[in-house]
Design brief:
Layout lengths: L9 H13 L5 H14 L15 H8 L5 H7 L11 H4 L16 H11 L8
Length: about 130
């Protein structure tokens, strides 16, 4: 699932309130997809955009097996589902991506993560 918006986004506030009211332990897909769709997107048309493409192996290769720029990635997709839990299916990626490790990893996902987290796309010299 991809969720993007500004820090004052109405959808995120409503989504958080919904989680507090109706969170169901162990039902990730329900909590993350079904509930917000029916409780928020259907009730407030236009508050957010929903796209369902499923697992996209070309995108996973792009993120975890290639080293493309943020600009190149943004020119190809308006949004990204990072498919983090599925990354092993493409290239047996076992890297633990976090705010420290992304500093030196050289792949598209790390480039995007550095750009978001540090406002700096290129790997840091450690």
């Amino acid at each position: 699932m991809v969720m993007m918006g500004t820090s004052d986004c109405v959808f995120f506030r409503l989504y958080e309130e919904l989680y507090k009211l109706d969170y169901q332990n162990g039902l990730w897909y329900f909590n993350g997809g079904i509930l917000p769709q029916y409780a928020l997107l259907d009730q407030y048309p236009g508050i957010a955009v929903m796209a369902d493409e499923g697992v996209h192996f070309g995108l996973m290769f792009w993120l975890y097996s290639s080293n493309r720029s943020v600009a190149d990635t943004r020119s190809r997709w308006n949004f990204l589902h990072v498919l983090y839990r599925h990354k092993k299916a493409v290239n047996k990626d076992t890297i633990d991506y976090n705010h420290t490790s992304i500093r030196t990893i050289q792949n598209t996902f790390a480039n995007i993560a550095r750009w978001i987290y540090y406002d700096h796309e290129e790997p840091f010299a450690e």
